[in-house]
Amino acid sequence: MATPAIEVENLNVRFGEAHVLKDVSFSVAPGESYGLVGESGSGKSTVLRVLSALNPNWSGRVAFSGEAHRARPDEAFFRQVQMVFQDPFGSLHPRMTIDAALAEPLAIHGLDRPDERIAAALKGVGLDEGFRFRYPHQLSGGQRQRVAIARALILEPRILLLDEPTSALDVSIQAEVLNLLQDIKKQRDLTMVLVSHNLAVVGHMCARVAVMNRGIIVEEASIDDLRRTGGQDPYTQELLAASRHVAIPGAA
Q: What domains can you pick out in the chain, each with its CATH number?
């Protein structure tokens, strides 16, 4: 049996008196897209912040390909694990051109051929080189999120963490970004963890999902099982009922 790409066991996070993650456990196979779904405040984004090393204050066990995750990992870790954030405008510096935003991680990690890598990264997300010297405010929301994805992928990671990557976009643009992510996953054989409050989005991207409520995983199942059974936990049933009338136009 293959070693999981990601293992999380009894993960706990506290912020002062608030116990925001309570013994969260799950694993993600290499090349799998795994979903974490729940309402705002359920703890799903906190899980991603631990996995991405943005939150070093946690207890439990986290491992990538069998190697223990440290609260403050070394530089090599960030070449292997990258994150795409919810708000594509907030995640891009308003005074940096797209070229500068993509060049920065290359310079930090000392990678060669920056011009070639930047051009390839933009092409990989469906943008031509004409976008290189524009600023974020000159791009649409969908274009900004494509740049954010390109920035995450330019270091050629094995694992991509996605924190509500389409929730800030118009519904018509959401499908374009989700289809792009599906294509990139297949091309690069990426392992993905997708966080969303929307089961329709998770169902489009992921075969397995963990449903979170108040810092606890209340149910883990395949999307097919959830659709067939309606879920075992009452909270899962509520989420499914809320998402039945939600569709993503153009989602392949």
A: 6-243 (3.40.50.300)
The DSSP letter of residue 23 is: E
Distance, in Å, from the CA atom of 71 to the CA atom of 79, rounded to the nearest integer, reads 16
Output the six-digit token pair for 170: 């118009």
- Report pTM: 0.93
Chain centroid to Cα 69, Å, comes to 18
Neighbours of 202 (CB within 10 A): 26
pLDDT of 252 reads: 54
235-239: list long-range contacts, CB under 8 Å, 24+ apart: 235/211, 236/211, 239/37, 239/38, 239/39, 239/199, 239/211
Alpha-carbon Rg for the chain in angstroms: 18
Q: 29 CB contacts (<8 Å, ≥6 apart)?
A: 2, 4, 5, 191
pLDDT at 209: 96
Tokens 């790409």, residue? 5
pLDDT in tens, 191-219: 999 999 888 889 889 999 999 999 999 99
